[in-house]
Specification:
17% strand; 889 residues; binds iron/sulfur cluster; 27 helices; 35 strands; binds FE2/S2 (inorganic) cluster; alpha/beta
């Protein structure tokens, strides 16, 4: 610890830390641009100047940049000295010389760090009267707008995009005071985390193009704490609504999960909520609209007799539990593909009883050696890839520390990173987006990846079973990987459901179990936002539902398109045999089309629910705005026959029914929670136009809708202070209108939220499992036969986000990927198409060919999750034939 004096007051702070975050954590309003808590210090903008006095006698002091100055015991400083204030004021005036001062038409206006800092520095009058330098803006794709004239050359964008996220196509061009941040030519920004530029750029150069299309000021958006619905990681989000339309999604800080960043699927995939494909009215099978009361009655009547309930990994625990309660445990089926269900059950068993910690994303970033098995995480769990990329830097941090250089100094760490990288090994079916950060890669079928894993485990601990007949190269690689993992203090093994292989999951457990380090960790990716929660709840398999359907006659399907879970002919037969099918969902689907009773379900933005992420963390998402009548939360449709249970009562009942879920009641406070007797407002205190917005209905402002289910109100009135940081719908502090106000809500800059991060962990490492020893045989290509490997894609494999137009625009056409030797044997080249016939039958599918040299021969890579590829099952054998005629687009 160190004692420092700032403007005459003494403080106890951490020695060696950068002075800027220390000042911010102490509550000082000190201006800055180039520093970012996740990016470290580079001292580029000169905006954080303070006076450092040499000794007690020193009256003059000298200007230092706080972000580049380490805290030392006995330091005497001034933020308020006139010389420092003047420097900061003049510096910002210079940075603003070429700025267009177009705040009224800038979409950053009102939540702009540059506006905040300009005001904070005291630069309030524009004196420059000369010509301004102007730039041409670029088209950067459907996600991001570009307005380069607003740039103040802080370099944050390129540091985030290139250094932090590994992007290659955003650069700085030019020299001296004429620099340009953009692509070398117009074109789509390729990196999967490009949306973070909107929040990282302190001014309005990069703005959210999807928000632009229906823009509202920050203070006019109604919001509530929410959780991303588009993969199993559970990133925290702040969706914003105006006029009953979801307008945007931005990051909501969670120190343990997503920190400051989201992936582009999570940020730009919200458009399905406003989609014309929404189911907005209850309907009977003949497409007749019926009243909500009649629909509710019909559902209750069906549930009064024996009915089968099909749950969903994209529905909340409460909705699944309500369905399970209504149909009874023996009639509840999870609604997952059978293999997926058994993989998830294996994962739950390992996480709960395997004795190895499942890390948060923050802990992933701290890993000092990583082995990824069978996943291209950028596509299966995108935000995890960003964390894994940071883990590679740990060796450089250690090296920098050993040289007595502060690890928050970005440049020396980047320099050390050239020669010092924490090892990341990737064993995958084909090339992945993280390969550039990897120490070594291995390509193989899921069986071969599992065999490599078993070999690594055996090398680490001879008690672990050993695969027979491993080739020399794979054996040497296994030894090298085992060596690195053995030496690590915080080794991490990553696997998941994307490889659809039990052997890969079991081998990953063996590796983690064999690791000598006390802080070894094992993380599994799971496909959907509540996959793990549903698996923890447990239930019967979909195939069993197909078998017993004739005895039931009625089927209630919750937020699930079964055609994504099982072959079409099986689902057709099931729905036909069912006779009466009720579907509760938010979007039209092939399954919904077959419903005799269709009930409109609220999306994540319109109702409440609890989700469990891949780490085992239960998190609550709150209704952002009232669902349009007669849309209701699925849990509300289903609990109508349960004495209309409140949401809290349903959560409690669910927690009581499942010991593994007991703690979900602590994921967030219930409806009774108040601050000083008041609920928490979803609308900011500057929310405008409330009367005018509804003047076409009534010139007297109608009463605000009442929310009996949560601690929030649909209003700007309510608790104004002392709201727990994790529950703050809007991050805002006096003088801090941008998202960087989050500094004021953390227990240390870049640390945890004050009062604790959001959510509660349901699983802690305990017990130990025996070695898994079902080692598969090596994959051997069979002549004229291919093994199907489904490959997820960040923009295209997830059901809901794919219905968002900007995301759909980035979604690649489904492809058949072939090794060059296989392609030449078939006499096809890129752009040709092939007819794919599966051994299990079903229709022939024609897909365009893409040549993928990294894909082993004998494997056929197919884009997962697309309607065109739904009939394929992982590892199915298939035959291929060159298709004649036109290539499907
Ligand atoms: S574009 Fe934004 S982030 Fe990039 S240098 Fe300019 S002001 Fe900084
Ligand atoms: S990583 Fe997953 S949870 Fe996080 S923002 Fe992306 S899609 Fe959402
Ligand atoms: S924030 Fe310190 S120099 Fe930029």
């Amino acid at each position: 610890m160190a004692t420092i004096e700032i403007d005459g007051v003494q403080y106890q702070v951490e020695a060696g830390e950068s002075l800027l975050p220390v000042c911010l954590a102490l509550g000082f309003d000190l201006t800055y641009f180039c520093w970012h808590p996740a990016l470290g210090s580079v001292g580029a903008c000169r905006q954080c100047a303070v006076i450092h006095y040499h000794d007690p006698e020193d009256q003059k002091g000298r200007l230092v940049m706080a972000c580049m100055t380490p805290v030392a015991d006995g330091m005497r400083l001034s933020i308020e000295a006139e010389q420092a204030r003047e420097f900061r004021r003049d510096n910002i005036e210079l940075l603003m010389i070429n700025h267009p001062h177009d705040c009224p038409v800038c979409e950053e206006g009102g939540e702009c760090h540059l506006q905040d800092m300009t005001l904070m520095s005291g630069h309030t009058t524009r004196r420059y009267r000369g010509r301004k330098r102007t730039h041409k803006n670029q088209y950067l794709g459907p996600f991001i707008n570009h307005e380069m004239n607003r740039c103040i050359a802080c370099y944050r964008c390129v540091r985030f995009y290139g250094d932090y996220a590994g992007g290659k196509d955003l650069q700085v061009f030019g020299m001296h005071n004429n620099v340009y941040f953009g692509r070398f030519e117009d074109g789509v920004l390729e990196n999967e985390f490009s949306g973070n530029l909107v929040e990282v750029c302190p001014t309005g150069v990069f703005t959210d193009r999807t928000f632009s299309a229906h823009y509202a000021r920050k203070w006019d958006l109604q919001t509530a704490p929410s959780v991303c619905a588009h993969c199993g990681l559970g990133c925290n989000t702040a969706p914003g609504e105006r006029y009953g339309e979801l307008r945007r999604v931005i990051n909501r800080y969670n120190g343990e999960v997503n920190g400051y960043f989201l992936c582009d699927r999570g940020r730009f995939g919200y458009g399905f909520v406003n989609s014309p494909d929404r189911i907005l009215k209850p309907r009977m099978h003949d497409r007749m609209d019926i009243t909500p009361e009649a629909a509710q009655q019909q559902l209750c009547d069906w549930l009064a007799d024996r009915a089968i309930g099909i749950g969903s990994p994209r529905a909340s625990l409460e909705a699944n539990f309500a369905l399970r309660s209504r149909v009874g445990e023996e009639n509840f089926f999870l609604g997952l593909g059978d293999n997926e269900q058994s993989l998830l059950e294996a994962i739950v068993e390992i996480l709960r009883h395997g004795g190895i910690r499942s890390p948060s994303l923050r802990e992933v970033e701290q890993a000092d050696a990583v082995l990824i098995m069978g996943e291209d995480v950028t596509h299966s769990a995108p935000r995890l890839a960003l964390s894994l990329r940071q883990s590679v830097r740990n060796a450089a941090f250690d090296r920098t520390r050993s040289l007595n250089i502060a690890p928050w100094l970005d440049k020396p760490v980047r320099e050390q990173q050239i020669d010092h990288r924490s090892p990341l090994f990737i064993a995958s079916v084909c090339a992945t987006r993280l390969d550039d950060a990897a120490a070594d890669t291995y390509r193989g079928s899921p069986e071969d990846i599992a065999r490599l894993g078993f070999a690594i485990a055996h090398d680490l601990d001879p008690g672990a079973p050993e695969p027979a007949g491993l080739n020399d190269d794979a054996r040497a690689l296994a030894v090298a990987i085992a060596d690195c993992l053995r030496q690590a203090r915080r080794p991490l093994v990553v696997a998941g459901t994307a490889s659809a292989s039990h052997a890969v999951i079991e081998a990953a457990y063996n590796v983690a179990k064999a690791l000598p380090a006390k802080d070894r960790q094992l993380t599994f990716t799971v496909p959907e936002c509540n996959s793990l929660g549903l698996a923890m709840m447990g239930g019967r398999r979909l195939r069993q539902a197909f078998e017993v359907v004739r005895d039931a006659g009625r089927v209630i399907i919750l937020e699930n398109d079964l055609y994504r879970r099982a072959p079409a002919w099986e689902v057709d037969a099931f729905l036909q045999a069912a006779g009466r099918v009720a579907v509760i969902d938010c979007l039209s689907s092939k399954t919904a089309e077959k419903a005799a009773l269709l009930l409109p379900a609220a999306t994540f933005a319109e109702t409440d629910g609890t989700l469990v992420n891949n780490e085992g963390r239960a998190q609550r998402y709150f209704q952002v705005y009232p669902a349009p009548e007669p849309v209701r939360g699925s849990w509300q449709w289903l609990s109508a026959g349960m004495d209309n249970l409140s949401f809290d009562a349903l959560t409690v009942a669910c927690a009581e029914a499942f010991p593994a879920l007991t703690a979900i009641t602590q994921a967030a406070p219930g409806a009774g929670f108040t601050v000083d007797g008041m609920k928490i407002p979803r609308q900011p205190h500057r929310y405008s136009g409330r009367t005018a917005m509804e003047a076409h209905i009534n010139v007297s402002e109608p009463q605000r809708p009442v929310d009996p289910e949560t601690p929030f109100t649909f209003s700007m009135e309510g608790a104004a202070a002392d709201v727990p940081a994790a529950l703050e719908p809007i991050i805002w502090a006096p003088g801090w209108n941008s998202n960087q106000a989050v500094n004021k809500f953390q227990d240390g800059i870049g640390g945890h939220l004050r009062g604790g991060d959001y959510g509660i962990r349901l699983i802690e490492a305990s017990g130990a499992l025996d070695w898994f020893n079902a080692i598969p045989d090596a994959f051997k290509p069979v002549k004229s036969q291919w093994r199907i490997i489904l490959l997820p894609h960040i923009f295209g494999s997830e059901e809901l986000s794919l219905r968002s137009p900007p995301l759909a625009e980035r979604s690649p056409s489904p492809l058949a990927m072939l090794n060059p030797s296989d392609a030449s044997a078939l006499a096809v080249q890129a752009g040709d198409s092939v007819e794919i016939s599966c051994f299990s039958g079903g229709p022939i599918v024609v897909l365009p060919v893409s040549i993928e040299p990294s894909l082993p021969a004998g494997l056929l890579g197919i884009t997962a999750g697309r309607q065109e590829t739904q009939r394929f099952r992982q590892s199915e054998p298939a035959t291929l034939k060159k298709a004649l005629g036109e290539v499907p687009s």
